[in-house]
Amino acid sequence: xxxxxxxxxxxxxxxxxxxxxxxxxxxxxxxxxxxxxxxxxxxxxxxxxxxxxxxxxxxxxxxxxxxxxxxxxxxxxxxxxxxxxxxxxxxxxxxxxxxxxxxxxxxxxxxxxxxxxxxxxxxxxxxxxxxxxxxxxxxxxxxxxxxxxxxxxxxxxxxxxxxxxxxxxxxxxxxxxxxxxxxxxxxxxxxxxxxxxxxxxxxxxxxxxxxxxxxxxxxxxxxxxxxxxxxxxxxxxxxxxxxxxxxxxxxxx
Length: 253
Ligand SMILES: NC(=O)c1ccc[n+]([C@@H]2O[C@H](COP(=O)([O-])OP(=O)(O)OC[C@H]3O[C@@H](n4cnc5c(N)ncnc54)[C@H](OP(=O)(O)O)[C@@H]3O)[C@@H](O)[C@H]2O)c1
Prior knowledge:
This protein has helices at about 10-20, 35-45, 70-75, 130-145, 155-185, 195-205, 210, 215-220, 220-230, 235-250, and strands at about 1-5, 25-30, 45-50, 60-65, 85, 105-110, 125-130, 150. With about 250 residues, it is of the alpha/beta class. It has 2 domains: about 1-155, NAD(P)-binding Rossmann-like Domain (Rossmann fold), CATH 3.40.50.720; about 160-250, Orthogonal Bundle (N-(1-d-carboxylethyl)-l-norvaline Dehydrogenase, domain 2), CATH 1.10.1040.20. An 8-stranded mixed sheet has the order 3-2-1-4-5-6-7-8. The N and C termini lie far apart (about 50 Å). The site of NADP nicotinamide-adenine-dinucleotide phosphate (NAP) has 23 residues, from helix 1, helix 3 and strand 6.
């Protein structure tokens, strides 16, 4: 398919690379950030523009990959009748694009994407469309980059998925950040925890997270928990989270 990307951040960059690797042609990158647009366009062998009036009308699909709150503003005064136009946000209804075309939808990649990624990760895609034509086109595009996990999901399901995604990815990563700061302050090497992190993540491919849980909280090792809280005296934020999660683990049994 011929594709125009609107936006030049993390998602535009990674989806652009995935589309290209799957044999699609990126015709153009539109972005207010002309330096980022031309850099990404150069990489993807595409044109770039920062003028809405010069957005090409010849693509099959337009992917709007800008900040959630900017989707409406960025697509203002863009009219692409007959074209399929989709944004990439989990928590924004597809109707935000209804002024742009009658074939509007969502192309939500359920993955943590960073522009700097050198290895292209597996990216499950949840798509939705205003009509059968839009759904068919977006399903085909999704299957081309995610053969196993290209699934239809309406606005409600997508928002619920996003909540779960924030918990498993953003919150977990925040815990890594706090643990890294704790290690740094206590003169420990955070990297020594990497095998444990990897094993815990891999285990839940075959066992439910609840069944895979170990540690002092579910063993009710009160003396160990007391010592840990003492050691966390100088780390109030982490101590607070330790207490909340210990209680959550013990009440979830
Ligand atoms: N990153 C992820 O892991 C991920 C995963 C799934 C879905 N998403 C969704 O994908 C979308 C893009 O996320 P991202 O991570 O690619 O964001 P990002 O890296 O911050 O890039 C955002 C893009 O939006 C542009 N932008 C921001 N505010 C704008 C405005 N007011 N007017 C015009 N352009 C504006 C930015 O331009 P400037 O460079 O000029 O700021 C940039 O090109 C979001 O809806 C997000 O929810 C993200």
